[in-house]
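[job 0412] stage=complex_fold ligand=erythose-4-phosphate status=START
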Amino acid sequence: MSIFLDTADLAEIEQFHRMGVLRGVTTNPTIYLKEGVTGGLRGVEQRSKEIARLITPLPLSVEVTSTDRLDVFRQAQTFAAWAENIVVKVTIHGPQGELENLEIVHELETRHNVRVNVTAMMSAQQCVLAAMAGATYVSIFGGRVNNMGYDARAEIAKLRRVLDRLELSAQIIVGSTREVLNVIEWLEAGAHIVTVVPDLLRGMIVHPYSKETVQQFLADAAKAEAMLAAAPAESRR
Ligand code: E4P
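[job 0412] stage=complex_fold status=DONE, emitting structure tokens
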């Protein structure tokens, strides 16, 4: 079970990576845009290489941005060549439900030694098929599933049971994390990995009562120090 960071922010990645709590990073075109990565594929290439170098050998997922079959295939191979730890993200299907993507996933994984993360999935059945196609990672968007009124935990648990039973090696990444609570509950439900935005990871560490406790320890230590300084010289021996 592990945690990935869902961001393209270098400073945030560096901070959490130094703590030793990360096992990978995931991105998507929306994340790059939010981080101000402009300049088309050149911008994506530069930032992806920086992240990949920073976290190597941990995996970095970078998403293809085309709907054209040949272009998706070309982009995937180009991204994978940027660094050894880059995993290519491909959506489960095209914007209108076009079916070419799983064929591309299968080809990339079985003939071109490219590791693929199949993304934008909302159900166990989609993930099982992506795993059968040979995907290294299958990404289900837990927060979006919950937003549709279903409990992502049930879908994750079902998916894990089926993958294990079929002895499929794909790792389940649960993304679209909305609450601190999601991380442990989704790992417990059967996710191999939960990918979280930096604010939620901070929220997992910082607890108001821990803050209060630390403040109390520091205040009492200062009081004890002051008492010692005020005590007569003989009593300090
Ligand atoms: C996962 O790999 C995705 O990058 C991400 O978690 C999607 O989250 P969103 O629903 O907040 O866009």
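Residues 6, 26, 28, 30, 119, 139, 141, 143-144, 175-176, 195 surround erythose-4-phosphate (CB under 6 Å).
[job 0412] exit 0
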